[in-house]
Design brief:
The chain is an alpha+beta fold. It contains 9 helices and 29 strands. It has helices at 2-35, 52-60, 241-253, 271-276, 295-299, 318-327, 379-384, 408-412, 431-438, and strands at 39-49, 68-81, 86-89, 95-96, 101-102, 105-109, 115-117, 119-124, 129-133, 155-160, 170-181, 194-197, 209-211, 217-224, 236-240, 260-261, 264-268, 285-290, 306-310, 313-314, 333-340, 343-350, 352-353, 372-376, 398-403, 419-423, 426-427, 446-453, 456-463. A hairpin with a 2-residue loop joins β21 (333-340) and β22 (343-350).
């Protein structure tokens, strides 16, 4: 009798366990069926102009290259509004960074194989998000969940088009590995608060959906960490839905993202600062400087203050504070908890709308090495400095907007209003390329600049 009882208990336990696994498996399948049609495959086409120096090199060896060729790339997107056919994807999926503009053509393929050309509603490089629109009916939007409720360890699904359009609507599963990851994307003017997951995310998944077990969108897949950079290594990153919703709504309603700014320069606490400033904790961010006339200055914040909380929410580092400030509404009165000379106190700050590049940041967007400052081209700068447009092509380069008296740039003959179009043999189309190319040169090396002034161009040499 005892043996029979043990067998019955064991059998019922195995039956219950099997039933639980089946129920769990069915949950995954149900989510995939419900959400798959809300995920789209994005194919972009862009015209690439071959560098003249490269063409000359091949001609020298008796070969020829076309002046232009078409480049195609793949990504994913998520339908977030079925009435207006809005689609959210990554900024990097549909943007040509070399030429600093959206790609030439964006095609969206639905799960039912219908294909539409998309138009760009809005772009936000800071969060790596973009909103597209197609003219389509009978489509389904994904419900958007609350990423603030996500917990480390819970199960998630990722849907996208890894590697090829032939692999569209691939579903992978994993868990939430961590929250609040930053320093994933390059650039000081970015807003990073990523969800980390071990669900398989590969090239082509960018812009796809990260879903909770309720089938709700909790993130837009954006990046991977991989030794090769080409395949999944169990570390993927998604932009939280809390950020997606704000950016999406602002881009649709205003065409740009409304952000608040505090007006400080800050740095995270390292071991040296922790010891020399005799701090009680390594959490928080240190105010290194205050922007004149900013909300921070008006509130009484001082250089050396350590900001440890924002509206009662603990600040672990500068990136966390930056995200919270930018997400708050301009005009909102917020409370910062700071540590000043060992004493904790609260300071009220009325945030203001960010008008330009002033923001909670550790650096500015201009570049002042060699005693000069340069900026990306804008219509205002073109008009201000009367920059001449070349025949049958766009203006490319960076504009010199300031020259330091007695600096290296002035001694070389460079003038304010000059358009720098080439460094060495590399054509320059934007500030990012300018910085990257300069960084390739070691100290005390001469650098060749090609500068356009009026209708003429000239070479200038500056020593780093």
């Amino acid at each position: 009798m005892k043996r029979i009882l043990i067998i019955l208990i064991a059998s019922s336990s195995l039956f219950a366990q099997g039933s639980m696994f089946k129920q769990f498996s069915n949950s995954f399948a149900d989510i995939a069926e419900n959400v798959n049609e809300s995920v789209v495959t994005i194919t972009t086409t862009n015209t690439v102009t071959m560098d003249e120096d490269v063409q000359n090199f091949y001609r020298y060896w008796g070969r020829s290259l076309p002046e232009e060729f078409e480049s195609k790339s793949l990504g994913s997107g998520v339908i977030v509004d079925e009435d207006n056919a809005y689609i959210v994807t990554n900024h990097h999926v549909i943007f040509d960074e070399r030429n600093d503009k959206p790609v030439d053509q964006i095609m969206v393929e639905l799960m039912d194989k219908r294909v539409f050309e998309a138009t760009v509603v809005g772009l936000d490089q800071g969060t790596d998000l973009a909103v597209l629109q197609i003219e389509a009916e009978n489509i389904k939007a994904v419900p958007i969940g609350d990423s603030e409720l996500v917990r480390v360890g819970e199960w998630v699904l990722a849907i996208g088009s890894p590697f090829s359009a032939n692999l569209s609507h691939t579903v992978t599963a994993g868990i939430i590995s961590a929250m609040g990851r930053n320093n994933v994307m390059r650039g000081s003017d970015t807003y990073q608060n990523f969800i980390q997951t071990d669900a398989a995310i590969n090239p082509g998944n960018s812009g796809g959906a990260l879903l909770n077990m309720n089938g709700e969108l909790i993130g837009i897949n954006a990046a991977i960490a991989s030794g090769s950079g080409r395949s999944n290594a169990g570390i993927g990153f998604a932009i939280p839905s809390s950020i997606v919703k704000k950016v999406m709504n602002d881009l649709i309603s205003k065409g740009y993202v409304v952000r608040s700014f505090l007006g400080i320069y800050m740095q995270d606490i390292n071991e040296d600062l922790y010891e020399t400033m005799d701090l009680e904790s390594r959490k928080g961010t240190i105010v290194s400087d205050i922007v004149e006339g900013s909300p921070a200055e008006k509130s009484g914040l001082e250089s050396g203050d350590v900001i440890i909380a924002f509206e009662g929410k603990e600040i672990t580092n500068g990136s966390a504070l930056k995200n919270l400030v930018s997400s708050a509404s301009p005009g909102q009165k917020i409370t910062l908890t700071i540590s000043r000379e060992g004493e904790v106190q609260d300071i009220d700050v009325v945030l203001e709308e960010r008008a330009g590049t002033e923001m909670v940041s550790s650096s500015s967007n201009d570049f002042d090495e060699f005693g000069l400052s340069v900026l990306d081209l804008t219509d205002d700068l073109i008009e201000q400095y009367d920059i001449q447009r070349p025949m049958n092509s766009d203006i490319q380069g960076v504009v010199v907007v300031n020259i330091e008296e007695g600096g290296i740039a002035e001694e070389s003959g460079m003038l304010e209003g000059d358009l720098i179009t080439r460094i060495g043999r590399q054509k320059i189309s934007n500030l990012k390329m300018f910085k990257e190319e300069i960084s390739e040169y070691e100290e005390d090396k001469k650098i060749l600049f090609l500068v356009k002034r009026g209708n003429a161009s000239r070479f200038l040499t500056l020593r780093r």
